[in-house]
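Propose amino acids for all 353 sites.
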C-alpha cells in the first residue's frame, strides 16, 4: 500500500523500505527510505485520521501556511536549507501538498530531519530547557502570522469548558455502563469545575490576544539534535491554529514536568517537578519573552493546572464513551491515563501550598 501511495509524490528515487514509526496516538505514520543514485534518504509518510480531523483539506491548508511561513523566516535568518531543521512538506506530482486515495484517505509526506530525535519523557535539565526554548521559538516564528490566516480546524479545542460539557454528557448517557467505576474521579472533577473557564474568560474579555499556537506541544513533539541536545523544531503540526499561548505552555509543562509520563504505571510515583517547571519556563521566556504581554506572562502558572485538568477529563470522557478517540493498548487504558493526570494536578496543587 505504501509503495502505491508514495508513487504519487515527487521523490528522487524508489522506495526501499517503509515501516510504522513513532508513538503518536492519532495519525498513522511510516518512516520511508528512498534510494537514488545520490544514496538513501528518509521521509515521513502519514495518513490523516479523519475521525479526529473532520476537515483534512483545512488541516493541510494550515500546515502548508505554517510550514511555508516558518521556512521563509528561517531563510531570512540565514538558514539556507530549512527543510533540514523544520517540518517541510513534499509535493505530489501534480503540485499538491497531499494525496487523496481511492478510499478518500488523505496522505502527506515530510522531509525526515536526520539530525533530530524526540523523547516521550524529559531526559534532564538541559532537555527541559530546550523543550521550553523550542516552544517559545516556534511561537515567535509565527508571531507575525495573523491567526485569521488559519482555519479553525478543531473548534473549541483547549476550551476546557467544552470538554467538561462533553464529560457531563458522557456521564449522563453512560453508553458502556462504566460510570460506577469512576466515583472518585467524578468527585475530583466536581471540586475543580471552576478551572474550566479560568483561561478562556480572559479571551472573552480581550485581556489576552489570540495568536497562532501549536495546541499540542507535548515532550515528544519537540525535536532536539542527536549530538548537541539543542532544540531543532516543533513537529506534529495538525493542531496548529488560532489560540492563546497558555494552551501551549500549560500543555508543555503538563507533559514535561511529570518525569513518569502520561502512562506512569504507578500512580504514587506521579509527581510535579517544580524544578523542571522553572527550567522549562526559563527556556520558554528566553525566546517568547520578546513578544508576550505582561498579562500573558502572569497567567502562565495557571495554565498548567487548567490544561492538566482538561486532559484528565478528556481521557475520562473517552473511557465512558468506549475509547472512541484516543488509541488504547489495553482495556482501561484511558481510565488510567485520566488518573495519572488527576494525580499530577493534585501534586501541582500541593506544590503551591
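Proposal:
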Amino acid at each position: 500500500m505504501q509503495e502505491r501511495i508514495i508513487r504519487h509524490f515527487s521523490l528522487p528515487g524508489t522506495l526501499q523500505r517503509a515501516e510504522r514509526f513513532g508513538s503518536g496516538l492519532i495519525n498513522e505514520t511510516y518512516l520511508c527510505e528512498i534510494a537514488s543514485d545520490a544514496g538513501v534518504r528518509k521521509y515521513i509518510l502519514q495518513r490523516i485520521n479523519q475521525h479526529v480531523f473532520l476537515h483534512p483539506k483545512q488541516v493541510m491548508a494550515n500546515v502548508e501556511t505554517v510550514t511555508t511561513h516558518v521556512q521563509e523566516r528561517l531563510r531570512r535568518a540565514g538558514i539556507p536549507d530549512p527543510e533540514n531543521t523544520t517540518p517541510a512538506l513534499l509535493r505530489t506530482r501534480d503540485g499538491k501538498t497531499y494525496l487523496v486515495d481511492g478510499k478518500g484517505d488523505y496522505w502527506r509526506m515530510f522531509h525526515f530531519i536526520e539530525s533530530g530525535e524526540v523523547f516521550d519523557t524529559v531526559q534532564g535539565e538541559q532537555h527541559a530547557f530546550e523543550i521550553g526554548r523550542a516552544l517559545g521559538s516556534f511561537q515567535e516564528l509565527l508571531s507575525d502570522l495573523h491567526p485569521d490566516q488559519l482555519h479553525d480546524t478543531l473548534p473549541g479545542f483547549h476550551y476546557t469548558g467544552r470538554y467538561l460539557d462533553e464529560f457531563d454528557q458522557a456521564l449522563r448517557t453512560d453508553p458502556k455502563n462504566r460510570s460506577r467505576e469512576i466515583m472518585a474521579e467524578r468527585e475530583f472533577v466536581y471540586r475543580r469545575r471552576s478551572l474550566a473557564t479560568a483561561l478562556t474568560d480572559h479571551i472573552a474579555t480581550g485581556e489576552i490576544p489570540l495568536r497562532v499556537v501549536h495546541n499540542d506541544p507535548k515532550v515528544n513533539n519537540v525535536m532536539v539534535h542527536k549530538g548537541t541536545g539543542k532544540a531543532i523544531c516543533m513537529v506534529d503540526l495538525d493542531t496548529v491554529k488560532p489560540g492563546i499561548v497558555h494552551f501551549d505552555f500549560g500543555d508543555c509543562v503538563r507533559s514535561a514536568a511529570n518525569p513518569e509520563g502520561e502512562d506512569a504505571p504507578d500512580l504514587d510515583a506521579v509527581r510535579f517537578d517544580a524544578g523542571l517547571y522553572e527550567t522549562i519556563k526559563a527556556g520558554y521566556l528566553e525566546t517568547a519573552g520578546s513578544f508576550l504581554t505582561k498579562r500573558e506572562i502572569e497567567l502562565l502558572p495557571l495554565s498548567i493546572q487548567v490544561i492538566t485538568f482538561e486532559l484528565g477529563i478528556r481521557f475520562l470522557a473517552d473511557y465512558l464513551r468506549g475509547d472512541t478517540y484516543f488509541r488504547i493498548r489495553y482495556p482501561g487504558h484511558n481510565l488510567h491515563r485520566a488518573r495519572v493526570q488527576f494525580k499530577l494536578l493534585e501534586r501541582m496543587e500541593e506544590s503551591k501550598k
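The chain has two domains: 2-114, 125-351. Strands lie at 14-20, 28-36, 39-47, 99-100, 106-111, 116-117, 211-213, 222-225, 231-234, 241-243.
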